[in-house]
Amino acid sequence: WSSDVCSSDLAVNNGGMNKASSVVVHEDGSFTLGAGSDVINTGTVSTSNEAGDAGQVVVLGNNVTNSGEIHADATAGTAGSIELHSTDTTSLEQHAQVTAKTSTQGVGGDVKVLGNKVGLFDTAEINASGANGGGQVLVGGDQTGSNIKISNADFIYLGENTNVKADGLVNGDGGKLITFASDTARIYGNLSARGGSESGNGGFIETSGLKGFEIVKAPDVSASAGYAGTWLIDPYDIEITNPKPNENRLDRHDNKNITTDETGANPKNTAYTSNDNSAELDVFILEAALERNAT
SS3 for 129? Predict the structure, then answer.
């Protein structure tokens, strides 16, 4: 690892962190990758710790693209934090994994995926689950977009095969999971902030696109040994729709599974386009959430 900032316009990590350019390693072992460049990670970045607390990962750039693995996990300690933050587009692609989780004990960590445009494609996964409670995941912004310390995305996109989790795994509540866009949010993936299997309540999930909003699956804030959590939907206006019987909700969304090619090329522009001030929610999705006792 280098403690200097390189002057290249592109930071690329194809293997371990020692192969990345433009890296700052801090005294506590955490590091910053990028700092103003375009950043591409196809390898593995890890500050995980099996015997103690995990570290911090901060990736900054004009555009941040991750198709590799970034981990700040702990086995029996405190999970770490991960922030991927661009001034333009932050994209998790292919089999990307971004995790700040605990397995034996401890609470999940903190994951922020921010930028003007934020996308999860292919089978990308974010996981801040913890044995004793879920952590926090912010995709595109914080709750209702009102945290002045967190930048808000104009557009977010989560493909149908993506997963975002902030579950309490054993004894603990589900965490906080925010998906927010100031303009349009297209949320086709799977979101969960479940309570623990032995004890714990469901967590809090927000799915908001203030101007345009599409969602095809109810987030999971259930709890098998406690009370279900809360699902917040917060567009300016929303229409509750009633599809035809046996109609597949996903079939009505042409861009539900935009993919990226093996070279990491930018996704199709339809992921980040305004939805013409249209926000709609199928009544069947509401019913599914209510069946899990979500509030």
Answer: coil
**CA 55 – CA 166 distance, rounded (Å):** 18
Distance CA 115, CA 62 (A): 9
Contact 200, 169 (CB under 8 A): no
Please give the backbone phi and psi of residue 113, each rounded to the nearest 5 degrees, phi first.
-125, 105
Return the closest-CA partner of residue 65 out of 101, 108, 14: 14
Give me 236's structure tokens: 């300016």
Dist. CA 257–CA 37, nearest whole Å: 28
List the structure tokens of 50.
Answer: 């099996």
Q: CA 276 → CA 65, 180, 211, 265, distances in Å?
A: 28, 17, 7, 26
Q: What token pair was written down for 46?
A: 């890890």
Sign, CA dihedral 158-161-162-165, equals: positive
pLDDT-flagged residues of the chain (< 50): 1-11, 17-21, 250, 262-265, 267
How far does CA 19 lie from the centroid of its chain?
26
Over the stretch 92-114, which tens digit does the pLDDT of each residue have?
Answer: 999 999 999 999 999 999 999 99
Q: Is the pTM of this model over 0.90?
A: no
Look at the block and give the residue holding tokens 């590799």.
68
Q: Give the CA count within 13 Å in the CB-facing half-sphere of 114.
A: 20
